[in-house]
């Protein structure tokens, strides 16, 4: 029979292990890749270490430094695997490409002793397709499942699995070095690196699995990596733009959920809970980026987010939706994507009325570009609700909820379910309702996932 003390120890260990997975997975895997140069071996040994922790920590107690414990166990496991397979000669051959001539570990001679940033640059080698670069880094750095990454790219899980296998094989066969590239090669990998960092933040800001809407550790890690990249590439406007964008979004993080952990829409958020220091940091980064005079998609997205945080001292009704619609139009020309078009449709609806936005969504749906994207149906439901077409809105919400059953966090599904219940309980109307728009789950502030 399990005693109360044993149950408490087990619960504590489970909580610490879950947090360690979120915060330490990337560090452990990156360290093992630096040691062995084998992606699959690194992931398998990291999984072994976490499995061992799940058995040992409830009994032996949580170690003082969980990350160091996990890294040591995983490294020992990797060394044992290499020895048992008699791969010392192969490992030495791989090490010649992984380590500089002076023997410094993991490319420390590049002056940047961060395994995770080196990992991102390795994954973002130009020999790989852009999709493969981003997907491989997310899989390796964050521990995101293949299904989660497939959702971020709006592709089938089987397609993403094949893409990951091909990327790992190409890195191995081409003997791509594990290091930050020299300065003259940085620019050709910057786009992929920025996309990786943003998708990492995106997964933290709106988690695709689990009960929590926000995974704070992933948000913090993405912001830290962007700042590290800024140190490596000072004066790069898109790096500054991405930093500003993430600061603006992260500033609203605490207001996005209520005391019960339920999602709070942008228009309903308590703006006094927005982090003023992060907003100021974002404003400073965006101003510096814009002064450089080389506009790009992340700077435009940061400008959109800046329109939202500009209401920190006011109300949702003060939002300049007309400017946001114009910025989305500009973003659509710079980086065309159906998700950008959906966001523009919502902004147009907020600026010019729901009928205008609904027409744009209908055209987007007719194009077949987002057949399984639940936020399209959620956005359409909001606009139908504003027009008083409750039964149609309820049907769109049913579709959105069905599509959200796979690859969407529980908090978002609960939010959709509450909206569906509300739509089903209200009578049909023939005129547009008054009041602020019920924007879709994050649609008005959707995080873009384009390159």
Proportion in β-strands? under 5%
Please tell me how large the radius of gyration is: 23 Å
Largest sheet: none
Q: Tell me, what is the CATH class of one domain?
A: Mainly Alpha
Mean pLDDT score: 80
Describe this structure in words.
There is one protein chain. This protein has 451 residues and is an all-alpha fold. Among the domains are: 104 residues, Rna Polymerase Sigma Factor, Chain: A (Orthogonal Bundle); 112 residues, Alpha Horseshoe (Serine Threonine Protein Phosphatase 5, Tetratricopeptide repeat). 67% of the residues lie in helices and 0% in strands. Helix 1 runs antiparallel to helix 2 and helix 6 packs across helix 8. The longest helix has 33 residues. It is globular, with a radius of gyration of 23 Å. The termini are far apart.
Q: What's this model, at a glance?
A:
By secondary structure, this protein is mostly helical.
